[in-house]
Amino acid sequence: MTFPLYTRRASFLARRRRGFTLAELLAAMIFMAIVVPVATQALTLSNRAGAVADRKRVAAELADRWLTEMITTEEWRRAERQGDFGDAWPGYRWTLEEQAWGKDAMREITVTVFFKVQDREYHVSLSSLAEEIEQ
Q: Residue 15: what pLDDT?
């Protein structure tokens, strides 16, 4: 029994293309060895950027609230120079600095709020002017 020519040829091609060659497998493995670490790093970086942006927004709000309170109550004159926000805002701490402002009889008050994201410390600083009391 003889098979037509196109059937024999299709059968030969089917037997020949059953799997991948070693070169194809090595190329795929090299490609994956390059792409997977880069993709993982990109995901880590984007996750950190999102977390930093969110925490920075909260830190700016806390610094603004703290600075406003310190200036309106004039508590900056006798307050401690560092602390944290207690159990309400764990992971955030603040420092208060004052220095002379050269143009008028004013003091520059700076509140800096520190926070950590993925074991890196970041900070937000806000400053305002307060009247200097002459004694």
A: 60
Residue 131, amino acid: E
The model scores a pTM over 0.85: no
User: At 34, phi and psi to the nearest 5?
Assistant: -85, -45
* CA nearest neighbour of 60 among 87, 20, 94: 94
- Contact, 94 vs 83, CB < 8 A? yes
Task: Decide if 95 contacts 112 (C-beta within 8 A).
Answer: yes
Instruction: Give residue limits of the domains in the chain.
Output: 19-131
Q: Render the chain in DSSP notation, one character per residue.
A: ----HHHHHHHHHHHHTSS--HHHHHHHHHHHHHHHHHHHHHHHHHHHHHHHHHHHHHHHHHHHHHHHHHHHTTGGGTS-SEEE-GGGSTT-EEEEEEEEETTTTEEEEEEEEEEEETTEEEEEEEEEEEEPPP-
